[in-house]
Amino acid sequence: MRRITFLYFLPFIFHFAAQAQNMASPDRRLLVILDDKERVSLGIVSDNKWLMGAELGIEAEVDGKEVCGTDIKGKPTTKYQKEDIVAPNYRQASFQTEYNQMNVPLNDGLSVEVRIYNEGVAFRYVLPKAKRPEQNRIIEECTDYSFPEDYMAYVPHSTNTRKPDAMAFQATYQVERLSKQSPTLAFLPLTVDCGAAKLTIMESDVRNYPGMFVEVLDKWMAGKFSCFPKAFDQSPRRQQRFVTAREDYIAQGVEHTPWRIIAVARNDCDMLANNMVYALASPSRIEDTSWIKPGHVAWDWWNDWGLSGIKFKAGINNDTYKHYIDFAARNGLEYVILDEGWYDPKSGNMLQTIPEIDLPMLVQYARERNVRIILWTVFNVLNDQLEQACLKYAQMGIAGFKVDFLDRNDQEAVEMTYRIAEACANHHLVLDYHGIYAPQGIQRTWPNVINFEAVFGMEEVKWTKHDEQDMPRYDVTFPFIRGQAGYVDFTPGGMRNATRADYQPIYANPITMGTRCHQLAHYIVHESPLTMLADSPTAYEREPECTRFIASLPAMYQSLKVIDGRLGEYIVVLRTDDKGNYYIAGETNWDERDLEIRLSSILPAKAKFDAEIFCDGINASHVATDYDVRHFQLSSSDILSLHLVQGGGFAAKLIRK
Predict the structure, then answer these.
(1) How far is 548 from 400, CA to CA, in rounded Å?
(2) 198 and 191 in contact (C-beta within 8 Å)?
(3) Which residues in 555-590 are b (16+ Cβ under 10 Å) and which e?
(4) SS3 state of residue 373
(5) DSSP structure string for 294-360
(6) 3 state SS of 652
(7) Beta strand pairing status for 111-117 and 21-24?
(8) Dist. CA 448–CA 352, nearest whole Å
(9) Residues 6+ apart with CB under 8 A from 597
(10) Whether 404 is catalytic
(11) Of 147, 145, 146, 143, the residue nearest 56 (C-alpha)
């Protein structure tokens, strides 16, 4: 199928919009326009301003016949839908969504389903009915996006120059105009600032299909997909599987594609409120989710098993993990992770622990202290031993797995994540998906998946120089963009904090960019049902006030709202819990700033609260660990005035009286 830049068609759609297929959002502020002058094209208009367009197309084989939808054939059908969605362990317990839908028939029996919400547009391709749908093949999906102007864009590019579609999906954003963006393959989500609105390109319900990449070429983006794997090899270090050859098609056994999402936010604060990824995913396959328990995690890897003042040699051994379990128990933390090393990663056998680890003993030791253990493993290692591992470790009392190093998003990889999620759900095991692409809806379909990485997280400070990456700026950028997709395993909580001048990468005793309160704010700003305390028990025991505060915060909140902020500059988030308490936190980039929060706009009238607020200390601009704690009573008539130093933050807990 020939790709043609959509810019060629923009005047056509403007001129002939009356003849095109139009549909408005329920609030009438968004308009989607479909036309097929040369190829099926879709345009998005917001408040009478043209935002972007998309060229649509797909080449497939159905029952041995090639089909290629390029023309609208017949009259579209439309409907209005309102849905009440229960969302366990999501950023809000439930929400309501509404949309208008148009089903557009194309030639060769194909069709396009288009939904327009108040907060964005989604579409997907539907293949014709097949006698043997399992034999369907998608040869190519030609979904391209185009913009009428050279807008500023926030694009995360691949970090692998040799094999761009094989990487950990961890990169900061290149903040440049479209024409200045690197031609390197980029992954989703990404955001384009169209002036009147910010558009975030995402996808949902990616179940038996590869995830989307894009190439940014001047003012348009060409959708790209990894072809289906044909041959594999494995690295000796972790037995991690990687692709050595691919087929000439991107997917097989497909009846429809995933949803392509263009989220529309006219205000930066509205970006994180977008629920389209979750709403468009397939409903939960788990009828009873009561066994799925979010929680805080004492974690070993980031702090490099960094214990001191103890009577044993710290490392991957029973005494070390008993120490982590004791720390978790004293502070009411629900979990401890045994990260890489509890089995020999070179063996590729997660059914056998190393001699230094007595896992049944550790599980029993943890159980007696009301703590549960999660085990690290590699995706394909778990997949190869899936039923054996699930059965063995569920019976032992393991809570779940942290699964790492997928590093690709072709169809075979995506299907692996669903297969693992289903098997683990059958055994009541939770999952933390690490080393993976951003959430694409599986968290709704299989809610036992309670965290994802796909973020340039805290691990990066172990080896990243400040002049290479700006973490405080990234910290107030990714929640607006990556946060829209869902959970984020950022692994916060570093107790060694540094100013811009003092920071340096240290592997074994890592320090963070920005202040102590910048770190504390992460626990409220991020949506993270399984949230790490990344530093060592020794570091936390030296900082009991901060440790108590982190441990006292809910692992799962009932609502989320960005009450102030600007992409790349600062963010202020409001959360609530199921007891009527409020939690407010904010972070800034390397610019110091003063914030004023009028509580009348967020707190119920007449209610009284006991407030505990951690804020940057008077010397935090020089000593980043400096903080101040304030305790007082608050009501909706009060105003919070806060000063954030460079790389600073604040975190507040308001307990209803």
Answers:
(1) 26
(2) yes
(3) bbbbebbbebbebbebbbbbbbbeeebbbbbbbbbb
(4) strand
(5) -EEEE-STTTTT---S-SS--SSSHHHHHHHHHHHHHTT--EEEE-TTSS-TTTT-TTS--TT--HH
(6) strand
(7) unpaired
(8) 25
(9) 563, 564, 572, 584, 639, 640, 642
(10) yes
(11) 143
pTM higher than the cut 0.85: yes
Q: Please check the confidence at residue 11 and state whether its pLDDT lies above 70.
A: no
CA distance 44 to 37: 17
| Tokens (6 digits) for 18 | 């009356």
Angstrom distance (rounded) from CA 582 to CA 610: 10
> Quick check: bond before 355 cis, omega within 30?
no
Band (453; pLDDT cuts 50, 70, 90): very high
Query: pLDDT of 594-652, one tens digit each?
Result: 999 999 999 999 999 999 999 999 999 999 999 999 999 999 999 999 999 999 999 99
Distance (Å, rounded) from C-alpha 28 to C-alpha 400? 45
Contact (Cβ atoms closer than 8 angstroms) between residue 292 and residue 334: no
Confidence class for position 467, pLDDT limits 50, 70, 90? confident
Residue with tokens 């759609």: 13
CA atoms within 13 A on the CB side of 156: 27
Catalytic: which of 404, 470, 489, 535? 404
Q: What is the C-alpha to C-alpha distance for residues 66 and 108, in angstroms, rounded to an integer?
A: 9
pLDDT for 281 equals 98
pLDDT of residue 83: 97
User: Which helix H or strand E contains 241, and what residues bound it?
Assistant: strand 241-246
Catalytic residue (choose from 108, 119, 432, 459): 459
- Spatial separation of the C-alpha atoms in residues 603 and 608, rounded to whole Å: 9
The full DSSP string for 95-108 is EEEEEEEEEEEBGG
Residue in this structure with the two tokens 């591992």, named with its chain if needed: 389
What pLDDT score was predicted for residue 16?
39
Q: Supply φ then ψ for residue 72, to 5 degrees.
A: -80, 125
Answer yes or no: are the C-beta atoms of 504 and 470 closer than 8 Å: no
Q: Helix or strand or coil: residue 459?
A: helix
Quick one: tokens of 46?
């917001």
381 pLDDT band (50/70/90 cuts)?
A: very high
Neighbours of 193 (CB within 10 A): 16
Tokens of residue 226, six digits: 């990894």
The CA-CA-CA angle for residues 562, 566, 571, to 5°, reads 45
Nearest to 616 by CA among 572, 650, 570: 650
For residue 248, list its beta bridge partners: none
What CA–CA distance (Å, rounded) separates 442 from 255? Answer: 18
Q: For the sheet containing 190-193, what is the strand order?
A: 77-86, 94-105, 111-117, 120-126, 259-265, 198-204, 190-193, 152-156, 173-177
Q: Which residues of 519-549 are buried (b: 16+ CB within 10 A; e: fewer)?
A: bbbbbbbbbbbbbbbbbbbbbbeebeebbeb
Give dist(CA 533, CA 551) in Å, integer: 9
pLDDT, one tens digit per residue, over 227-261 is 999 999 999 999 999 999 999 999 999 999 999 99
Q: How many angstroms separate the CA atoms of 203 and 261, rounded?
A: 5
Mapped onto helix, strand or coil, the DSSP state of residue 417 is helix
Query: Is residue 649 a contact partner of residue 616, using CB atoms and an 8 Å limit?
Result: yes
CB atoms within 10 A of CB 608: 14
